[in-house]
Amino acid sequence: MSILASLAPAIAQTTEFVRPAIDWHAFAPELVLLAWGALVTVIDLIGGERTRRFMPSLTGIGFLLAMIPVLTLWSQNDDLPRVLFDGAYMVDHYSLVLKGIFLVSAYVIVLLSSNYMAEGDYYDAEYYQLIAASVLGMLVMTSARDLISIFIALELMSIPAYLMAAWRKSDLKSNEAGLKYMLMGVFASGILLYGMSLLYGAAADTRLVEIADAIDTGETTPIFTLGVLFTIIGFAFKVSAVPFHTWAPDTYEGAPTPLTAFLAVASKAGGFVALVSVVLFAFPHQWEIAEPVMWILSALTMTVGNLIALRQTNIVRMLAYSGIAQAGYMLAPLAVYSKVPDLAQSSIVTYLLIYAAMNLGAFAVVIIAARKTRSGDIESYGGMFRYAPGITVAMTVFLFSLTGIPPMGGWFAKFQIFNALLSAETTAATVLAIIAAVNSVIAAYYYLAIAKQMWFLPAPDGDHSPIVVPPALMAAVAITVIVTIATGSVGVGLVGDATDFVELLASP
Amino acid sequence: MFLNQFLLFAAVLFCIGIYGVLARKNGVLVLMSIELILNSVNINLVAFGAYNQDLAGQVFALFIIAVAAAEVGVGLAIVLLIYRNRRSIDVAKANLLKG
Amino acid sequence: MIASTLLAAETTADVAFGTLPSLILVPLLTAAVIMLLPASRADYVKLAALIGSVITGAISIYVLWHFDVADPGFQFTAQREWISSLGLSWFLGIDGISLFLVVLTGILFPIAILTTEPHHDPKPYHVWIMLLMAGSMGAFLALDLLLFFLFFEVVLVPMYFLIGGWGHGNRVYAAMKFFLYTMAASALMLVGIVSLVFLAAGDTGGATFNVIELAENHQLSTLASTLVFLSFALAFAVKVPVFPVHTWLPDAHTEAPTAGSVILAGVMLKLGTYGMLRFGVYLFPEVVFDLGWIFMTLGVIGIVYGAAVATMQKDLKRLVAYSSVAHMGFIVLGIFALNSQGMTGAVVQMVNHGITTGALFILVGWIYERRHTREIAALGGLQKSAPLMAGVFTLVMLSSVGLPGLNGFVGEFLILLGTFSAARWWAVVAVSGVILAALYMLWAYQRTFHGPAVGENATMEDMRLSELFGILPLLVLIVFLGVYPKPMLDRIEPSVDALIEHVEERVTDFYEPEPNEVERVGVTGLIEAAEHGESGGEGEEDH
Fold first, then answer.
1. Do B60 and A194 touch (CB under 8 A)?
2. Closest by alpha carbon to C273, among C212, C352, C209, C190?
């Protein structure tokens, strides 16, 4: 008794749990989406068939609701950055811009999916819930500044996508797409985790900033070097950088097209965010290892992606390879991140924003065209200007944006990449910029090939019946066209200034 | 502390796992090989955590175990789907799509 | 001198804000209006395009009218912040070098719209033409390096669609070739621009794309400025096109619809030579001074090669296209002669080539419309069935040949004069180009219009009055600028001299040509003297 009594203060001391102060506002976007996703799931459980047709709208509303706290957080400029959980989670301009990009992209993807899912014989309610879960992972990813939270966010983002890639259950191609995506994704996670475990071992902390500091003070050990390499390779799989890209075209072609858009845009962007966070926040002093790797990955990715894209005849595969090539452009600033960390970060964010708009738009047009042609062959786009001028003009906007022709957004994205590379003023960076410039010409060839089909060549079977475009798809095209043109013309200043906020915050 | 032994053991497991992923044709075996990789990571984390007197490593390992369960759940579901449609789980035979 | 330019840019900023932007905005708005018109009413569409382009042309004439002859700097400047963090601004201005190119653009577009008719889909056709007009205007007016580059790229798109959608024969191939060639060449230019801006950021006090500030302050090493200049030069050389990279031009010109050829030859090729003057010589005088001989050599090769190949052409339009290669060679020669006569001549020749070749393409287009062939062999004796057209063709052809008294002479004469004082033997070779031009042009004329008229040639319809009215402004200009070039030279010369002075300031061992008669009487006096067959001396003293 007396022993116990004497122990009581000690027990009380060890068991007394002080809840850390949680900044609910900073955490609100994720909470809103989580709560709404749970609500939608419950509604689906109760309503069943009766509520099924409301699912896309409900999910879309969820994404827009989650935008509200993002905007209020942005408006309270002075409070940023907000640090949560001892620096493991951070809300700053960088994460807010990205959250906005992810939420709007997700909304557009819901618009793309609604008709596709409703018209096929698919489980549509679950599909939207999985998208919401995956987007939640992306939102967490933008703010995660800790190896554990990055890992959790990455898996939350990826696992639903494995399922959705195999969504057309009876279609062998879709099965295969899901299998390849899942195996490669899990394998990449394994390599990534191995790298992370080494980083943790070297730094004795999982927070990115602590890792950076630990290595700054001590000298670089082989363990840490290996950790950096494995981590980068793991992410290279996720962002489909050459030579770790082979899963991407197969998965993109086999998966349902709206999901392909999701994978090629949102999911890839999520991987990029994680890569950028880890490289910039955890390896600021390890640039001697990371920069050459990034240089090689970037040069290989853009060149190989473009060269293979040249000989594609299926438009989805072509867009997949063009997406790989663009991942190469996005990797390029990381080859100079030690010299110009702020510019590297903001240029990647700019590219992600514009990349999302123009690629989602292109996929929207592909989905619309497939409603009539039932084909993904580039040749089936012949003569589209005759029977669908509006769609043709929209696709032209996206294609010229991808080519990098002003006043579409693509030029500004590329310009920012050049800015980041050339402001480093090193020979290697200049060479990479020249490689990127040459690649943009190669890319022009295959983008123009589509424009040529649509504008100049006759329809393959002389079928000139118009395409019926459902309102949801129309809205998706409208949103992406507006964003694509605005980011390259009137809105350039706005984008430039917004991403100018995005700057490296070395310490929490 | 005998940290090196743990690290070496984990590295061996990791390599076996990588080999399995690359060499095995059977979908389930590939998944098992990936499990090996994840377990080598867990060993690393726990060993480092004990060595550094830090709890985060063990917490990380717990997270990985949980997530790995989810991954394998999804993975087996997809493998089952393939099996239903083509009566085979040979990964090499899934080649309708040419990269 | 240039410091005062900068000052002038600041003082006139608030006075005329809006004039130059309207040159870009009016065609843009017209394109938007045309998009809203019903596709079935081709007449409305054409009328709208015509009105929009005429208004733009009128504004350009207004600028010409109010242009201050005495001021060599940039006038009508309009500057507005764009992306402050990147040093980008919306900076437009005009000086003696760009003035007449802007006016040329303002005149050629309405004429091209008036005198030609698309054979299908008039609505998108006119939208593309108006977008092309906006882009060309923007490129000539931009004083912000990046803004120029953007317009320089933008014009590719409408031209691509005009050639590919409304061209003849192998149009899709020609359109792709045109686009990829020019884009490939300009891809490195963007790298060059951004490099220049960052390398010069220390000298200009922060990154800026302002051409004036860059030209005044940048202190790039010889290697760096050579590399950046080469990236610029490649882009411009393909656009001009200079000899080894000219192969896109005959295809594009031949397959393009008439209006496309007119604008391509009249306006778009000038983007290349204008770029060389404004962004090559102005930004990198040292490099131009060192490497100018390369471009002069290429220019001379272009002159001889273009003329020789033109002589052998069987297709009338291709012949005109190759004559363009030769004429553009003269302009390049004049620019890199790096003296007042050569450069003034180059600017004059840019304008004259636009007028003359534009008119030639319009005429060839009319012949094609009537005879459905451009084969010189299939034509013949058109003089009898179409005397009016033969007369007009003669005038335009003689201008192209460079007959004294017509506009073509002024530019070529000045260029040869400038080249002669800078690099004697280059001028000697270039003169042969003038002789060859007379050969191929007169021969082509003879085969097309003389001889017996067989078959359809005998019954070909002559020029309609409306057509004569359409081309008349060009004919008037051909004669007027040939007889009385002084007002034009008066406006070009001060800006060119300012540019030369800038070169002198930057290049330490720049040598002035011996002050000879040329210096004494000035360019205008020389031209007048040459045309009146007198020796110089009575000309006005401009210096």
1. no
2. C352
- Summarised one tens digit per residue, pLDDT across range C169-199 is 888 999 999 999 988 888 889 999 988 888 8
Q: What is the mean pLDDT of chain C?
A: 85
Taking CB atoms and an 8 Å cutoff, what residues of chain C touch A445?
Answer: 176, 180
Residue A219: its pLDDT value, please?
67
Q: Are C211 and C283 spatial neighbours (Cβ–Cβ below 8 Å)?
A: yes
Whether chains B and A touch (3+ CB pairs under 8 A) is answered by: yes
Of A324, A308, A333, A309, the closest CA to residue A359 belongs to A324
A251/A178 Cα distance (integer angstroms): 7
If pLDDT is split at 50, 70 and 90, which confidence band does C476 have?
very high
3-state secondary structure C166-194: HCCCCHHHHHHHHHHHHHHHHHHHHHHHH
Chain B touches chain C, with at least 3 Cβ pairs below 8 Å, answer no
Give the mean pLDDT of C451-458: 79
Whether residues A422 and C188 touch (CB distance < 8 A) is answered with: no
| B63, B71, B96 member nearest A176 (Cβ) | B96
**CA dist C272 to A164, C175, C199, C306, C438, Å?**
52, 18, 24, 17, 26
Domain assignment present for A47: no
- Check residue A9 and give its pLDDT: 56
Interface check for A349 against chain C (CB to CB < 8 A): the answer is no
Q: Is B98 on the interface with A (CB under 8 A)?
A: yes
Q: Do C179 and A444 touch (CB under 8 A)?
A: yes
A142 in Cβ contact with A84 (< 8 Å): no
Give all chains having 3 or more CB-to-CB distances under 8 Å with chain B.
Answer: A
- Number of inter-chain CB pairs under 8 A, A vs B: 132
Provide the residue range defining the domain that includes A325.
286-508
pLDDT, position A296: 93
Question: Residue C528 has what pLDDT?
Answer: 65
End-to-end distance of chain C based on CA atoms, in angstroms? 15
In angstroms, the separation between the Cα of residue A284 and the nearest Cα of chain B is 22
Residue A339 covered by a domain: yes
Q: Which of A148, A180, A182 sits opposite B60 (nearest CB)?
A: A148
In a domain, A448, yes or no: yes
Three-state SS sequence of A291-311: HHHHHHHHHHHHHHHHHHHHC
Taking the C-alpha atoms of residue C460 and residue C363, their distance in angstroms, rounded to an integer, is 14
Euclidean distance between CA atoms C136 and C151, whole angstroms? 7
The predicted pLDDT at position B95 comes to: 67
Tokens of residue C245, six digits: 């990279």
Tell if the CB–CB gap between C85 and A497 is shorter than 8 Å. Answer: yes
> How many domains in chain A?
1
Residue C293 clears pLDDT 60, i.e. is over it: yes
What's the pLDDT tens digit per position in A326-344? Answer: 999 999 999 998 888 888 8
Among A354-368, A369-383, A390-404, whose mean pLDDT is lowest? A369-383
Q: Which CATH architecture has domain B3-87?
A: Orthogonal Bundle (1.10)
> Where do the structural domains in chain B lie, given as residue ranges?
3-87
Of B14, B60, B91, the CB nearest to A206: B60
* pLDDT score of C13: 43
The beta-carbon neighbor of C187 closest among A438, A448, A457 is A438
Give mean pLDDT, residues A196-222.
82
pLDDT for C542: 39
Among A123, A186, A224, the residue to mutate for chain B (most B Cβ within 10 A):
A186
Higher pLDDT, A217 or A115: A115
Write down the H helix ranges in A166-286.
172-203, 208-217, 222-238, 247-254, 257-261, 268-277
d(CA A207, CA A291): 21
Q: Which of A197, A210, A237, A321 to mutate to test the interface with B (most CBs of B within 10 A)?
A: A197
